[in-house]
Amino acid sequence: MTQPNAASSQPQPDISLQGAVDLSGLGQAPGAAQPPQQPGAPAGEALLSLPDAVVNGGEADLEQFAALSQRMPVLVEMHSASSPDSKALSPVLAEIVRSAEGRLVLLRLDLDAHPTLGNQAQVLALLGGRPAPLFAGNPPKDQLVQVISEVLAVAAQQGLTGYAEITGDADGVAEDAAPAEAPLHPLHQEAKDALERGDIATAKSAYERALAESPADDDAKIGLAQVSLLERLQGKTLEQIRSAAAENPNDIDAQFDVADLDLSGGHVDDAFNRLLSLFTKVDADGKTRVRERLIELFDVVGGDEPRVVRARQRLTSLLFA
């Protein structure tokens, strides 16, 4: 395999494993090429701290790691428990990545948990935000080392010399150790920290800003629904809420409060049944409000939860009754 030359204006790495592509066109940085970084001696900027260079994540983490790849190399392993090659590859790949001491990180995506990513177990490189397939199957370890060395060399030539500070004990990490969870988006972390100190308003603001930044951020949508529920219950006692609902059975706001209270106490079916029954008793404007509140509570519980699925089916029937 030809190593990139620091003096060459067009490095042409030759990665010849299955499914591999030329990495030389990825994330080209302006200016002179830089020499490949030597192992064990990161010379770029520390970009983040992680307990492990191997991170278990999901689809929502791809955008964050693509952004990270603008400053350091990232590998993405799309794996499946149903693939023997994938299961054999994972611990070997993790060992190699950890040995790079933070000069690259590995994002692992479970295809069984995220079927929208497809069913092809494979490993890709992200350089400058652009993906390149590296290999599928389970190549020999020496070939894996060669390919990852090539990725590091190309990244160094393109100026992607940032690195992650690994806070865990690399020597004590077993090959089959559970990878770290993906770091939270800064706004999600801000919301989490605010909730831990009881600051609901700041948590709500953080989730709203996350949604404004990325409207498809489902985690922010769920978080906003949860903190909005907590906000609505602030300053209200259980006795006040239940008394108002009993005295005003057709008052939408009073029934909303009881549904919030039930949901916060884990009585999910009671909350849904109350609002579905209310839906049949109110006028058109009221039906719109009840439907919107139900959808918000569905987000709080989780769209795939069986009780949500049942309640959504009932709501759909009522809408078309």
From TrEMBL:
Polar residues composition-biased segments: 1-15
Low complexity bias: start-end ranges: 27-44
Superkingdom field: Bacteria
Residue span of region Disordered: 1-44
A Pfam family per the record: TPR_19
InterPro entries registered for this protein in UniProt: Thioredoxin-like_sf, TPR-like_helical_dom_sf
Protein's UniProt name: Co-chaperone YbbN
Organism: Gulosibacter sediminis
